[in-house]
Amino acid sequence: MAKYLLLKHYRGAPAAVNDVPMAQWTPEEISAHVRYMNEFAARLEETGEFVDGQALAPEGTFVRYDGEGRPPVTDGPFAETKDLIAGWMVIDVDSYERAVELAGELSAAPGAGGKPIHEWLELRPFLTEPPTITE
Amino acid sequence: MDEALLRSLTPGVLAVLVRRGADFAAAEDAVQDALVEAIRVWPADPPRDPKGWLVTVAWRRFLDATRADAARRRREDLVDEEPPPGPVPAVDDTLQLYFLCAHPSLTPSSAVALTLRAVGGLTTRQIAQAYLVPEATMAQRISRAKRTVSGVRFDQPGDVATVLRVLYLVFNEGYSGDVDLAAEAIRLTRQLAAAIDHPEVAGLLALMLLHHARRAARTAPDGALVPLAEQDRGRWDTTLIAEGIEILQAALARDRLGEFQAQAAIAALHADAPTAGETDWVQIVEWYDELARLTDSPVVRLNRAVAVGEADGPRAGLAALAGLDDSLPRYAAVAAYLHERDGDLATAARLYAEAARMAPNLAERDHLTRQAARLNARRGR
Predict the structure, then answer these.
(1) With a CB-CB cutoff of 8 Å, which residues 35-74 of chain A face chain B?
(2) Is B352 part of the contact surface with chain A (CB cutoff 8 Å)?
């Protein structure tokens, strides 16, 4: 088993094929999209491959240490930041091929006109614990 | 076996142990053990006096634990002090437990966790699941909380307001898991209302009942939020509404108004309207005025602007928004709604999309995006 992170980007991924902002869809198209996402997660729970799924607010803050006795410095949000994570799903699957297959399914979620968004999702393997058997 | 009934005995049993001299943290662990034992044993062998059974078993567990890790003399003192078996006093120290678990020295999340475990009788695992954190994290949170309050004298009078804030949090921020935290909050508030005669306790209980009554109508089968005006009022729980209104009226009659009574009064006016169009918005605005006087909260003034928009028209509502900070949560959503009512669909659509970006949860984000989409579709036609 191997864990993979499926990353969805607000910004930073190549443009989707069916790239229309959600507020320009019809309410029914939005409902269909939400249903697809929920059913996808539910199906992965059924197969025992779902680990976690979270969505993030679009705006965040950068924070850094500013020295002893001083409060941390905060900055941002930066409108020009190139990469912006929208959310993720963690899956635990048997192979890289299965991870790719599932990412493909998620990317087929319906968007404007009820057609698949063909959104680019980023697939990142988790670094694992070292194995018990080493030779 | 009725687990809620079993759990309702928790605070009384815990209080007996503490009264007998057990320190709070150890007593609380012992009571948890006794609850687990009860779940195992009772289905086959139900006791005649459930509370007495729990006290006996918990006390034995406490003594076992004391024997394991504390001085033998202290244990013998405690055995000497043990009161004769028999019925335990009905008026217990439940109230003191509420105060202790909501002690001002605790952070809100610690107070919530400790209340659910020590007063509510939930297991650490159930509480962890409900708040979507690992069980080990929740166990740490609870044991740190117990250490924090370990020096507090058990008979110290507490502040009801702190307890009410904790119960309000449990009700309002119940997430998921196999425990219905909203129902649990109602159960705990009922129990508190039985232990103390206080109009704000009644007000909070009424508020919870009136909101819980609408729960089935609040979400569509696909999980989408259904706003108040569009809810199928036939799906509201009329029994809960009737009970909430009765409790509220009795509280209001005592003429000691507080913020929970005022919030419940607003919920009651919504519950009273057979259709959204028949809502008594003028009275609701008056209650928001009372609430603003009691709390001076910008959130209240934001909600008041919605009510003003309904009572006196969207322009009045927009005027009521003036002076409020537009970075307030849900400000954009309220402004969007009022602009839509005022016929300015372009501004409303833009504000709904902005509100969606700032939404604090997915259900609201989806709902607001749908609102923007609805207006954009209408404008496109």
Answers:
(1) 35, 38, 55, 57-59
(2) yes
